[in-house]
UniProtKB/TrEMBL annotation:
Keyword annotations: Membrane, Signal, Transmembrane, Transmembrane helix
Annotated source species: Huso huso (Beluga)
Transmembrane segments: 404-429
UniProt entry tagged with the keyword Transmembrane helix: yes
Protein name: Ig-like domain-containing protein
Gene3D superfamilies: Immunoglobulins
Keyword set includes Transmembrane helix: yes
Taxonomy of the source species: Eukaryota, Metazoa, Chordata, Craniata, Vertebrata
Length: 478
């Protein structure tokens, strides 16, 4: 039994070696899937040309197509509907599939020429787009009998990235974008990989703005979506001190009125105007492309000035980690004051005793770089963010803050305006009345004709209706 097994193994080994040597003797032609391939027939064309196909070396050839005179006969092979013989006797196959791989034979008048067709294809683990920080897996498959092992070349270089037929990257970055190539022998099949991310911005995720100002939140894709089937959608949300739960910004009416959305494709940036301390918090842009998601977050800090017990306080609302505040006078001289960390804000108080300048400025720094600043002039009302909410306190409080001479001026101006309107209306009415009176007198001075005398004596017309004199009719019109 053992000797029989050994003899069977020897036979199979010989067949394998023979098949490999036979395959090596064929001319290898590599082609990519869905492409067009032309197999030449290096034999002088005659009246009869026959092309045959077999899947492997151990199978028999089956007719693909042959010409007999002016007739063309097709066989039962899978590529028969996509094959045709050219005038040079070459075989052309359209839209090559993986199951077209195998051995092809051209025969003219008993002379034969054979080829080994190898179909190379790249199969991704999942279709694009490929987002930053996601994974990538590409398999390079070679259909047919080949002794060559596929390898992957990195973009813009002949350096081998992976000596395996599988290209796998756990976490994609922007440097992985480009054209990867699967090399099999001398044949190279290109596979474009475009990694989409959100463009970097100089803020490093932290934005600072003074009270009442505007702030821009960038959220734009690193490259334009070239494929028409890819659609991007951006959703903004925020978490603030007053609202710890995540809220969709477009569902907040008070915030939506102050938003300006970008209209270009792939750009989901927003601008927020009239920023107040209640807007300080964490803002997140979530981008979705065909089910794939990526996000970018920003910390918004708001700088404001408030009054407290006669002192002026510079307040930083938001995350004060790494930030420094400082008061400086009109000459740019800084004051050495101590910041105080509160529950919802960080403060820097300028005592009344040190207000010896006509103008002050509160500066906000991140390291040594100035982020924003806010001005304050002693003797003026402090803008604490409530100016945009006057309606909530009532218009009476706003009126009482006005100077007396301003109120008097408004009242006197109103009385004069009403008097002028009355005079103009009176003159217009008088002018109209004088016009009517003048026209009536002019009509009374005109002599009456005989026909008019007759009409004056008649009380009724033929149809029984009462008629008036011409001057009465004119008078009635007025």
């Amino acid at each position: 039994m053992g000797n029989e097994m050994k003899s069977v193994m020897r036979v199979w080994l010989k067949m394998f070696i023979l098949g490999f040597l036979q395959a090596a003797s064929y001319g290898n032609i590599y082609v990519s899937k869905k492409s067009v391939v032309t197999l030449p027939c290096d034999v002088k064309p005659q009246t009869q040309v026959a092309w045959s196909y077999k899947k492997d070396v151990s199978s028999a050839y089956t007719n693909i197509v042959k010409t007999v005179g002016r007739n063309t006969l097709f066989g039962t092979t899978p590529m028969k509907s996509k094959s045709r013989i050219l005038s040079s006797a070459a075989l052309q196959i359209q839209d090559v599939e993986t199951d077209f791989a195998g051995f092809y034979q051209c025969e003219i008048s008993g002379i034969k020429k054979e080829y080994n067709l190898l179909v190379v294809s790249v199969v991704p683990e999942h279709p694009g787009p490929y987002l930053q920080s996601s994974s990538l897996k590409l398999d390079c498959l070679v259909s047919g009998s080949s002794g060559e092992r596929p390898v992957w070349l990195q973009p813009g270089s002949e350096e081998v990235w992976s000596s395996s037929s599988t290209l796998e990257i756990k976490e994609l970055t922007m440097r992985h974008s480009g054209t990867w190539r699967c090399r099999v022998g001398s044949f190279k099949l290109e596979q474009k990989v475009e990694v989409l991310g959100i463009k970097a911005d100089p803020s490093s995720g932290t934005l600072s703005v003074k009270n009442g100002g505007s702030v821009f939140f960038p959220c734009e894709l690193s490259s334009i979506l070239t494929e028409s089937q890819y659609q991007s959608e951006g959703v903004w949300s925020r978490v603030t001190q007053e609202s710890p739960a995540e809220q969709k910004i477009l569902q907040l009416n008070k915030v939506k009125k102050r938003l300006l959305l970008s209209s270009s494709k792939g750009n989901h940036s927003i601008s927020l105007s009239k920023v107040s301390p209640v807007d300080a918090g964490r803002y997140t842009c979530l981008v979705q492309i065909n089910g794939a998601k990526m996000s970018k977050s920003f910390q918004l800090n708001v700088l404001s000035v408030e009054s407290s017990g006669g002192n002026v306080v510079c307040c930083l609302h938001g995350n004060a980690s790494g930030f420094q505040m400082g008061w400086s006078d009109a000459e740019g001289q800084a004051r050495d004051l101590q910041m105080q960390q509160g529950k919802s804000k960080t403060t820097l108080t300028l005592p009344m005793a040190q207000m010896n300048s006509t103008a002050w400025k509160c500066n906000l720094y991140l390291g040594s770089k100035l982020q924003t600043s806010i001005d304050y002039t002693p003797g003026t009302a402090v803008d604490d963010g409530s100016s945009s909410n006057v309606g909530s306190r009532g218009w009476v409080a706003a009126v009482l803050k006005m100077e007396l001479w301003v109120l008097i001026s408004i009242c006197v101006g109103g009385v004069i305006l009403i008097a002028l309107v009355g005079v103009v209306i009176g003159l217009l009415v008088r002018r109209r009345h004088l016009k009517r009176l003048t026209r009536r007198r002019r009509l009374q001075k005109q002599p009456l004709t005989p026909r008019q005398y007759c009409q004056c004596q008649r009380k009724r017309t033929i149809n029984g209706s009462r008629r008036m004199n011409s001057y009465q009719e004119e008078d009635r019109d007025y």
